[in-house]
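Page 42, continued from yesterday. The earlier attempt failed because a stray header line got pasted into the input along with the sequence. Redoing it now with the clean sequence only.
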Amino acid sequence: MAILAGQGDEGAVRLRRIFASGTKFLQSAWGLFVRAGRHITVRRLCIFLILLFVVSIILPLLYIGRYAVPAADDYIYGRYAYQAFQDTGSFFAAVKSAVRQIGDTWKSWQGTYSAIFLMALQPAVFGADWYILTPIVLILSLTAGICLICRAVLHRWLGAGGWCAGAVAMVLAFICVQLLPSPSEGFYWWNGGIYYTFSFAVMLMMFSLLIYYAVPNANRGKAKGVKMLLLCGMAFFIGGSNYITALNTAILYALALLLLLWTKNRAWRWLCLPYAIFWGGFLFNALAPGNATRQNMLGNTPSAVEAIVTSFPAAIRFVDNNVSLFLFGVLLALVPLLFWMAGRCKTNFARPGLVTLVAALYYVSCFTPTLYAFGNGNTGAMRTHDLFFYTMVIVFVFVLFYWLGWVRRGLERYKGENGRPLPDILLAPFSRQRLACLLLAAVALSVAYWGKASPASSNLAMQTLASGEAKAYAAQMRSRLVLYEDLSILDVEVPPLTAHPWLIYNGSDITEDFTHWLNAGQMAYFRKNTIRVNPALPADSHV
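This time it went through. Structure tokens are written below.
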């Protein structure tokens, strides 16, 4: 018993030493945190996040874009423009051919005129090396849209600081870029990315302009006219984009007009003009004869009511499948900043339950168009999931901010010593480093970025670059291009691909059957009689 007692005492001593050492470490870390917090400002923190965001994108994501190549519908929609540019060397001839593509597709397949125009002008039309612009255009447009909408909503509309809005925007952009369900279709494939990611970015830009236009005393003279002109142009563009973005725009714009009417803001009168232009474009899009042809090929589809009902479980499943530990950690790190920002806002954050319900229904509505088009619970290709992900993240952060604002307004009714509001007392330990909590978000993002098991896009890009798979894939595809561009060869056979980098390859490669639609698209694009894969050819014949 004495021996056991002695072992127990020794174990207790060790535990006390470990506890004392841990306490001392935490005290030292807290002291360092406090000293660092004295030098943290909103501006410096935002600049740091911008630099972190830029570095994490430029180093891996844009660099790996040099290995991206056209695929699938890039050839089908870009055919006329490519051939016109090859024949004439004229950019304007290519643009004219893109307009021709709109007419042909509107009659035969779909009415999305603005998307078709941009898809017809995919960068490789003007040379294979120009395809590197694909991730640059798509990633930067999405980032710009997120930054503009955050500044418009948080700063211009609600009254939070501009640098605070910028910091939140950088975190949202980080999430949307690094944790995207399918970067290959969202960022590295022109056709899929323009159709969904770019259209979504334009929608964000349009609503940010709408807020700037509607806020009193925020526009004068020519600036107001320029904003209205841009709003009309963007509304026309979105009317001819994909149906998910179009439906989202119709709902949000109607809610915006109702809010302006309720608050007796006269800006609603002029803002009806872009909405009318949007509906004109959307009707031209929806009534295209090609839509009926395409729908007949898909077979029986559910009714509108069935599509709406099945949207709810689909939306829940998507949240369950895409809310990762990384995403949860970053959003959690945003809570102190959002709580502090809410105290600087002008609104009273009334009726949070109603706001949450409307936001949830808006998110669920994203799933309805694809469920109506395909049926059987099919929520579409991965590029549509990218669009769902953008919407989910932005809606969730807005609802979180609104609830934190409501909680803060409720706590402000209670006073502590010296009449200080309770929220200020709760944030007192963070008086000098209240925004340093956002730095935790940056740390979490860094872990997500550098961790070996991380799902972050940048991490996957670095792994793919290190393995040489991206370089091998590009070399094999460009060796094919040499055969395709040789006018003396009318029947082309190529070996199957041996490299399939998930980040930039969307799985759409030609087959052994030259009548397959993927083969037929490339045959028409390059003016060949046949193009097919021949498994008998050795893999090294690529180079």
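Notes: Residues 1-8, 429-434 have pLDDT under 50 and may be disordered.
Reminder to self: strip header lines before submitting.
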